[in-house]
Design a protein that fits this description.
Blueprint: E1 17-19, E2 25-33, E3 36-43, E4 58-63, E5 66-68, E6 71-74, E7 79-84, E8 93-94, E9 108-113, E10 120-125, E11 137-142, H1 157-172, E12 189-190, E13 196-210, E14 213-220, E15 229-231, E16 236-243, E17 252-254, E18 278-284, E19 289-294, H2 299-302, E20 308-313, E21 323-324, E22 327-328, E23 335-346, E24 350-353, E25 364-366, E26 371-378, E27 384-388, E28 393-398, E29 401-409, E30 411-414, E31 419-424, E32 430-436, E33 443-444, E34 447-448, E35 452-457
Parallel strand pairs: 4-7, 6-11, 13-16, 15-20, 23-26, 25-35
Antiparallel strand pairs: 1-9, 2-3, 4-5, 7-9, 8-10, 10-11, 12-13, 13-14, 16-18, 17-19, 19-20, 21-22, 23-24, 26-31, 27-30, 27-32, 28-29, 28-31, 32-35, 33-34
Length: 458
């Protein structure tokens, strides 16, 4: 399938946004794959003389979820004409520079002046959370003649077979072994005054998000998510943080009641814990809670990069002995497994469950008829509708607070900062997929990735 590419505009040094207008064009159509337009537009001056003074630009098409073309060149001193041909908001950034377009709605366009770039190769990507991980990346070569750099026939029949095999291969690789496991329970030391003390060190480590993909993770105790901290109501809690990061940090106890001076928001409630320094948080666990701990200082960077973890006070009260939507909950219900599942979609960690991207996500194995308790904790920048195939999820608590009226749902929408607790009672043997239902958070042209795992019922 081919289509006429959008118009490219020659004017303006800074990124500007517009709807499409009419300009003189010479269009070179590359092709399209899965309805994504790959095109290069050579823009010709509309001067009546039609002679010298022609201005060359290269267009980039943004779609769900690709850059078209994904490899291109531009003359030194050139411009990128960027068009959002998709239905979602996108932008285009040149990696490791300040060059970025405004956020563009579907149908909008902007010029991105790249004349300040020296000859060489640069990475392009969409900076909207999750879009880079879903495939919106490309390569820009400065110092070329303004044409697509790869010359690939994206429309050939062989590509469809390759897409099929990429998906099958990615799924057959599950579960894949990678270095490092997050969310590991952290045992406290008991101080002389009876406090439960937990020691955390914040540092940058190499973290294997998916097989062979290592990233610079900002981690607590070398893991993403950080250690799972669980205490009981009435406990005196101490958390000592040693900052081995290159910048300052703090810890906010999201959803946990604390004294004001322990809330973890520098410089309002405490001094910044600068690089090389430490700090001791202390509070009494007043009430049951399912919370998160994470950096607040430069949280837009530190949290998605891995400075996040689960803190839980006591056990969630369950609707034992009640009948909900015709389902009787046993009065003597016992939980076979308790699973904290931290959702992320940005930073170096990217689209992930508990710090891992499929096929490196951990499968969960249960016996038929067992009850399991799952806490969804969204530390990302987007809402994630979490869908469990086959088995309805009984939502029993929101943000750690038991619901007066629990309800069943096959998909649970978890917004940033929210925590949902659900009961599952798998009773049908087999391997059942469990994933975020925003499809580009789980699949890309290279196959399945991101926010996918499985429940294995034996």
């Amino acid at each position: 399938m081919t289509s006429t590419p959008p118009d490219a505009r020659p004017d303006g040094d800074a990124p500007t946004t517009s709807r499409r207008g009419d300009f003189g064009l010479a269009v070179v159509t590359i092709t399209a794959t899965l309805g994504l337009v790959f095109s290069v537009v050579a823009m010709v001056s509309d001067d009546d003389g039609g002679g010298g003074g022609d201005t060359a630009a290269v267009s980039v098409s943004l779609t769900e979820f690709a850059l078209g073309p994904d490899a291109l060149t531009v003359e030194e001193g050139g411009t990128l004409a960027v068009f959002n041909d998709g239905g979602q908001m996108h932008n285009l950034r040149v990696a490791d520079t300040d060059l970025i377009t405004p956020d563009l709605l579907g149908g909008e366009s902007a010029d991105l002046d790249v004349s300040s770039l020296a000859p060489g190769e640069y990475e392009l990507f969409c900076e909207i959370a999750g879009h880079k991980e879903a495939g919106m990346t490309g390569t820009l070569v400065v110092g070329g003649d303004g044409v697509a750099a790869d010359g690939t026939d994206h429309g050939s029949d062989a590509d469809w077979a390759a897409l099929d095999e990429a998906m099958m291969s990615s799924m057959r690789a599950f579960p894949a072994e990678t270095e490092g496991t997050g969310n590991q329970p952290l045992e406290p030391t008991i101080t002389a005054d009876g406090a439960k003390r937990f020691d955390l060190t914040a540092s940058i480590v190499q973290w294997e998000v998916e097989p062979g993909k290592f990233v610079d993770a900002w981690a607590y105790n070398g893991m993403v998510p950080g250690p799972w901290i669980k205490v009981e109501v009435g406990d005196l809690v101490q958390v000592h943080i040693q900052n081995d990061l290159p910048m300052g940090t703090d810890i906010h106890w999201h959803g946990i009641r604390t004294p004001n001076n322990m809330d973890g928001v520098a410089p309002i409630t405490q001094d910044l814990v600068r690089s090389g320094e430490d700090f001791l948080y202390e509070f009494t666990a007043e009430r049951k809670a399912v919370g998160m701990y994470h950096a607040h200082h430069h949280g837009q960077m530190q949290v998605p990069n891995g400075l996040l973890g689960v803190i839980q006070i006591g056990d969630v009260d369950l609707p034992r002995g009640r009948t909900i939507s015709g389902t009787a909950i046993p009065a003597d219900l016992e939980i076979a497994q308790e699973i904290p599942m931290v959702l992320n979609d940005a930073g170096t960690i990217g689209l992930s469950l508990n710090g891992k991207s499929f096929p490196a996500t951990a499968p969960y194995t249960v016996e038929s008829g067992e009850w399991i308790l799952v806490h969804y904790l969204n530390e990302g920048l987007q809402t994630h509708p979490m869908h469990q195939h086959q088995f309805p999820q009984l939502v029993v608590a929101k943000d750690g607070i038991p619901l007066d009226n629990p309800y069943f749902a096959d998909t649970v929408n978890v917004a940033p900062g929210e925590r949902y607790t659900v009961l599952l009672n798998p009773d049908d043997p087999g391997t059942w997929v469990w994933h975020c239902h925003i499809l580009n958070h789980v699949e890309r042209e290279e196959g399945m990735f991101g926010m996918v795992t499985a429940l294995v019922v034996s």
